[in-house]
Structures are given as structure tokens and as C-alpha cells.
Design brief:
single chain, 133 residues, alpha/beta, 5 strands, binds flavin mononucleotide
Length: 133
């Protein structure tokens, strides 16, 4: 397996914070969604909006060629019970497989209310124990 990248979209900064923690932990490159490049594995990280996948991540998956890539998927949302995360993660799983990728694993974490950014210690705790290599 080659060099890892964490690919993320973030409006208010919580998902960016989670992506930074993961990239540091893995020695991976941090890539904003619009500049996603040829790396393997990929960690896709995006907030849940209105109980759905994020339009920015959906747009990326519309045009992504993920053949031969292992893809891990992270959702960030305000709801501490992670409502709708299962449906959203299943949606992304299907999209990744349609694009030719293999899903390595998924994780749903709590970020913050809209307009707020979660504190880094809380993000670190939420990501604790996620085995992504
Ligand atoms: C337009 C919009 C819709 C949202 N819808 C939901 C939702 O359905 N469920 C939820 O738990 N959080 C929802 N949120 C909250 C975000 O998922 C949460 O603030 C997350 O931490 C944002 O990540 P970011 O800081 O990386 O942008 C919504 C936020 C916005 C801006």
C-alpha cells in the first residue's frame, strides 16, 4: 500500500480538526476535497447535513476513480446519538464501491452545533481506537 491521504470537506472546522488528528496519527497527507489526488489509502471525512451525505463529498464521488484504493469513511455531525449516520455511511459505502474502491472501515463522530467548532480534545477522544492503519 502507498502513501495515505485524508480527504475532507469542512464548513465550520470540526471535520477539518478530525482530519488533522487522523493525518498526524497516520503520517498521511491532508487534502481538501477540491484538491483530492492520487493517494492510497484514502480517508474521506465530511459532515452530515440535513440527515444526508454532504453535497461536496457527493460531488467528489460523482467523478472519483477509486479503482484499487482502500477507502475509510468518517462522518461528523451535531447529534451525539449519531442519528442517520448509518444510512449516510451506507450511502457512501455504495458510492465508493460504484467508483471501484474497497471500503476499509467507517466511523461516526460528534462535532459541534452549526456555526461552532468542536474542541480538539473531544475530537481526539471520538477518534480513539479507530484502526485505520
Ligand atoms: C446545513 C447544515 C445541516 C446540518 N444537518 C445536520 C443533521 O441533519 N444532523 C446532525 O447531527 N448535524 C447536522 N448539522 C451539524 C453539522 O454536522 C456539525 O455542525 C458538524 O460538526 C459540522 O462539521 P464542520 O465543522 O466540519 O463543518 C448540520 C449543519 C449544517 C451547516
Amino acid at each position: 500500500m502507498g502513501h495515505a491521504a485524508v480527504v475532507f470537506f469542512s464548513r465550520d472546522g470540526s471535520t477539518k480538526r478530525a482530519a488533522e488528528v487522523l493525518a498526524n496519527r497516520m503520517g498521511a497527507t491532508l487534502v481538501e476535497l477540491h484538491e483530492a489526488q492520487a493517494s492510497n489509502p484514502l480517508i474521506l471525512a465530511a459532515p452530515i447535513w440535513a440527515g444526508n451525505g454532504n453535497p461536496a463529498m457527493n460531488g467528489f464521488l460523482d467523478q472519483a476513480d477509486l479503482r484499487g484504493k482502500t477507502v475509510h469513511i468518517l462522518t461528523v455531525q451535531a447529534d451525539p446519538d449519531h442519528g442517520s449516520s448509518k444510512a449516510v455511511l451506507d450511502h457512501y459505502r455504495r458510492r465508493v464501491v460504484e467508483a471501484g474502491g474497497t471500503v476499509g472501515g467507517t466511523r461516526a463522530i460528534t462535532g459541534a452545533s452549526p456555526g461552532k467548532t468542536a474542541e480538539e480534545p473531544a475530537i481526539r477522544d471520538a477518534l480513539e481506537g479507530w484502526e485505520i492503519g
